[in-house]
Amino acid sequence: MTDDSQTHADRTVVLASGGMDSATAAYEAQARGYDDLYLLHTSYGQNTEQRELDCARALADHVDAAEFLRVETSHLRQIGGSSLTDDGMAVAEADTEGDEIPSSYVPFRNANLLSMAVSFAEANGASAVFIGAHSEDFSGYPDCRPAFFEAFQSVVDVGTKPDTEIALEAPFVEWTKTDIAERGLELGVPYADTWSCYRSDEPACGTCDACAFRLEAFQRLGERDPIPYERRPEYAD
After folding, report:
1. Is the pLDDT of residue 106 over 90?
2. 180 with 134: CB under 8 angstroms?
3. Are 38 and 13 in contact (CB under 8 A)?
4. Superfamily of domain 8-177
5. Which of 181, 188, 174, 176 is nearest to 222 (CA)?
6. What is the pTM of this model?
């Protein structure tokens, strides 16, 4: 990590969770002309922490990342309030039509992650931060809404050095999971090296929200999701 006071137009930070959305965001960043990708992965005590880390590292290799930084944010597990971090809360069965905030919501997680990503970007002279949030996320997660990212851009503009310009990029914020999968297949994203399941490191359960949205996307495109599943219910209409 370097202290770089100059902003580089071809340099960006990508929040790399290990999932398919962030992997697609990394490839989308490259397609938009960002040659130097700085990947930031956070481990916060989630159920599938190790598998997500392995996938994020694999992504760094696939995109020939300029740097891969893992940060442990165990305070999110200590704070709790989510079935992803609290052993006393069960991960709910999939409800792709629900409009309630699911138990998997980690309170204000994206603000925590984006704050670190912006710090990483400013320290390394990156001109953007990419996050893979999308429309089916913000239907249940308040920190995935377009208004949240617009507000956070204002925080970035006000809270960084006067000569710092960092664009917060959420390229899929109005897209569905199917849209993302279709774009990722066009870009050659190695989805076999991504993980979405909220419950299990191996195999994916196939019945949590994350598995359901992912399987539905591949099914709508007539493609087989390359990762292993305990169950593969039919979610597409």
Report:
1. no
2. yes
3. yes
4. HUPs (3.40.50.620)
5. 181
6. 0.91
